[in-house]
Amino acid sequence: MTLRISVIGTGYLGAVHAVGMAELGYTVVGVDVDADKVAALARGEAPFYEPGLDELLAKHSATGRLTFTTDFAAVAGADVHFVCVGTPQRRDGLAADMRYVEAAIDSLAPHLGSECLVVGKSTVPVGTAAAMADRLAKTAPVGAGAELAWNPEFLREGYAVEDTLRPDRLVFGVTSGDAERRLRGVYARAIDDDTPVIVTDLPTAELVKVSANAFLATKISFINAMAEIAEVAGADVTKLADAIGHDARIGRKYLNSGIGFGGGCLPKDIRAFMARAGELGASHSLAFLAEVDAINLRRRQYVVDLTRELVGGSVANRRIAVLGAAFKPHSDDVRDSPALNIAGQLHLQGARVSVYDPKAIANARKVFPTLPYAESAMEACRDASVVLHLTEWQEFRELDPAELAGIVETPVVVDGRNCLDADAWRAAGWTYRGLGRP
Ligand SMILES: NC(=O)C1=CN([C@@H]2O[C@H](COP(=O)(O)OP(=O)(O)OC[C@H]3O[C@@H](n4cnc5c(N)ncnc54)[C@H](O)[C@@H]3O)[C@@H](O)[C@H]2O)C=CC1
Ligand SMILES: O=C(O)[C@H]1O[C@H](OP(=O)(O)OP(=O)(O)OC[C@H]2O[C@@H](n3ccc(=O)[nH]c3=O)[C@H](O)[C@@H]2O)[C@H](O)[C@@H](O)[C@@H]1O
């Protein structure tokens, strides 16, 4: 019999997971409290930009095997329930806001059938799974027999469909062999014999997730610290990254220097990890993450200061072109976007900023409605005193520096992602400034 799956929370993670489960052949219902999001998904439209998602959504919505609703009663009868709700940073501190996970468990509990599996996928502070198992036991109908497991997700936005359908590894935090067997069954069609499946207890599974993100954030801040040193020493951090990256023990990935990491995950996850370590009496173990965070935030400030310096001291009334609003290319996500943060700071200092992004303008407008936005890279750059390249979309890499030089006021470019062809820009008459790169 076809497995029936429910996915609670249909944001960047949950919508892709629901679609992925349908692609694996299951009958799937996605539930969210956001009626607009549900309505879009139910029409077969992805509520955000993610390559490949629209096609699969349309394909499976048409068969009726993939449905979306705000009504939790629709999850009744599902064999496996995946909890994918948000765990954002709390407004009053560094810790994760667990309200949404708790609410999802409470809404799910009354509808659980006998012998179903509830699987947490959200990124949570260690100890959450055990607490949610207790919560479920207290609220689920007597005899419901639901079991809880934690299966953290490692997908990257921009590659979310691919990562869901072909995960590089799976982690199953379980308390029984039966839960492991069921999870192996769910993912059987997504993996081959070589895909590592790591089966752990609940706290280890939760920690794997946050430590993976902490490591990635640390690697990025490491190279950005090297960029700071390279800047004052007159060295080239991009060459340095290539050279150390050839050492297989180090590896070149996540050594791209620039304005640092943003998004809905790395920044809030390292902060929540520090907060949890503090609650567990182990603040000292993760004290280095405060520096990782500080190095990262310094990158944004550095570009703001550099821009001011490049225009002779004050950005007031100067036209600044900002290429990029998303926190990274192939995504329309602007959560904690370094590019938007820099644009916002310059705007507040009186600059006449013009922001362009191929996919993220609509989301950027919601967060920063007062920022001026352009319809194209050329429009953003017209009459600019400085061009800031802040999100490395392919479209920006392909800009013709000679053509652009003809429409700006002053040909000065700051390459916040260290990936433009410096020689080509200089040859076209530009003052090129990389970050930690001559
Ligand atoms: N975005 C990503 O690439 C990845 C995210 N994660 C983790 O997945 C979780 C979700 O992240 P995103 O999808 O990015 O967040 P998101 O904000 O895009 O989506 C969360 C969704 O949960 C819904 N929701 C909130 N409370 C609810 C409730 N009580 N019942 C049903 N739905 C509810 C919201 O309306 C929203 O649509 C987070 O813990 C995040 O750290 C993990 C791996 C990758
Ligand atoms: O927990 C999550 O949500 C996800 O967080 C990250 O994925 P994501 O946020 O989609 O984006 P990344 O591709 O990791 O990039 C994060 C940020 O780091 C920046 N970055 C990345 C790599 C690099 O070398 N340098 C660098 O500055 C990017 O521009 C971006 O702002 C992880 O890569 C995923 O494995 C994880 O599942």
From TrEMBL:
Family recorded in the similarity comment: Belongs to the UDP-glucose/GDP-mannose dehydrogenase family.
Protein name: UDP-glucose 6-dehydrogenase
Active site, renumbered: C265 (nucleophile)
Residues the record lists as binding substrate: F154, L155, R156, E157, K209, Y254, L255, N256, S257, G258, G262, K328
SMART domains: UDPG_MGDP_dh_C (SM00984)
Reaction it catalyzes: UDP-alpha-D-glucose + 2 NAD(+) + H2O = UDP-alpha-D-glucuronate + 2 NADH + 3 H(+)
Binding site for NAD(+): D32, K37, T87, T123, E157, K268, R335
Keyword field contains Oxidoreductase: yes
Cited Gene3D superfamilies: Cytochrome c1, transmembrane anchor, C-terminal, NAD(P)-binding Rossmann-like Domain
Keywords: NAD, Oxidoreductase
Residues of the UDP-glucose/GDP-mannose dehydrogenase C-terminal domain: 321-422
EC numbers: 1.1.1.22
UniProt enzyme class: oxidoreductase
Organism: Jiangella alkaliphila
GO molecular function: NAD binding; UDP-glucose 6-dehydrogenase activity
Transmembrane segments: none
A UniProt-annotated Pfam family: UDPG_MGDP_dh_N
An example Gene Ontology biological process: UDP-glucuronate biosynthetic process
PANTHER family cross-referenced by the UniProt entry: UDP-GLUCOSE 6-DEHYDROGENASE TUAD (PTHR43750)
Pathway(s) annotated for this protein in UniProt: Nucleotide-sugar biosynthesis; UDP-alpha-D-glucuronate biosynthesis; UDP-alpha-D-glucuronate from UDP-alpha-D-glucose: step 1/1
